[in-house]
Amino acid sequence: MSLILAIESSCDDTSAAVLRDDRLLSNVIASQKVHEQYGGVVPELASRAHQQNIVPVVDTALSRAGINAHDLDAVAFTRGPGLLGSLLVGVSFAKCFALSLGIPLIEVNHLQAHVLSHFIRQDDEYEPPRFPLLCLLVSGGHTQIILLHSHFEMELIGQTIDDAAGEAIDKAAKIMDLGYPGGPIIDRLAKEGNPDAYQFATPNIAGFDYSFSGIKTSFLYFLRDQLKEDPDFIEHHKADLCASIQKCIVSFLLKKFEKAALKYRVRQVAIAGGVSANSTLRAGVLALGEKHHWKAYVPTMQFCTDNAAMVGIAGYYKYLKGDFADISLPPYTR
């Protein structure tokens, strides 16, 4: 049996979690509101906020788990990718904490952690995925189709060649001046709109790769032309615009994901990453599961955004292998 403290600080969420083997005991997240006024994450402000949050977040995670720090067997931490200043706070704290307790360190890849979040047990009824598993990882910085043969044997079979899907959604929100973060706002307004009101161009990319720059350009040019005729076009058609751009992006994502699953003959599919919180994407993956009789996994909302629980489950499987990190390892941004 293992008790692992996990720390996540790759962007603007400071998080700590405690896991007993693959069972989650606590998962604490401190978000940063300071970035809203800038319309995006400011790296310097993010790292400063991490310094303020890291100690109380870890203390709260241990308290909610009902354990003492001296009960821990290892400390898992996000090494990268992410913002360097933010990562340095989490990595430095993890090293000092583990060194003071005389327990091993486990370095975790942020993207692998998102994918492995589906293996976290919160109750006895839950059945984690079996291999092979095809996962669509979608966030503000990454869009990838990953084939898992085991917990750490991951084959990248498709990815974006330019912008990420989440970045395209946020850009659409920014163009419409909806506020930050744009993804949840578009998702909320889309529920009130007609997803077939407007059509936007999607690129023809070979294989299972994606491209979202063209969709952003198509959306921008469409609004430019409409605003010439009606300066209040966005305000008058906001819900329909949100529903239409969301359908365009999600349909593009799922079309290739479905083809990949059929080609590789998988029976287990999943989504992960920040955009996996999108209601249209979640419903779409579940619909694919029903259509093809696949077992489809969508993460609970607390595991969609950056969180330490996913770092902890990745750390657990590394702990089983004795895959520990040297204290000299630096963080990496890419």
List its traits.
single chain, 334 residues, alpha/beta, Nucleotidyltransferase, domain 5, five-stranded mixed β-sheet, globular
How would you describe what is shown here?
With about 325 residues, this protein is of the alpha/beta class. The chain folds into 2 domains: about 5-120 and about 305-320, ATPase, nucleotide binding domain (Nucleotidyltransferase, domain 5, 2-Layer Sandwich), CATH 3.30.420.40; about 135-300, ATPase, nucleotide binding domain (Nucleotidyltransferase, domain 5, 2-Layer Sandwich), CATH 3.30.420.40. It is about 45% helix and about 20% strand. The protein has 11 helices and 10 strands. It has a 5-stranded mixed sheet with strand order 3-2-1-4-5, sandwiched between helices. A 5-stranded mixed sheet has the order 8-7-6-9-10, sandwiched between helices. Helix 8 packs parallel to helix 9. It is globular.
Lay out the secondary structure.
Layout: E1 3-8, E2 14-20, E3 23-30, H1 43-65, E4 74-80, H2 84-101, E5 105-109, H3 110-116, E6 133-138, E7 143-148, E8 154-159, H4 165-175, H5 182-190, H6 213-229, H7 233-236, H8 238-264, E9 268-272, H9 279-292, E10 295-297, H10 301-304, H11 308-321
Parallel strand pairs: 1-4, 4-5, 6-9, 9-10
Antiparallel strand pairs: 1-2, 2-3, 6-7, 7-8
Helix pairs in contact: 1-2, 3-11, 4-5, 4-6, 4-8, 5-8, 8-9
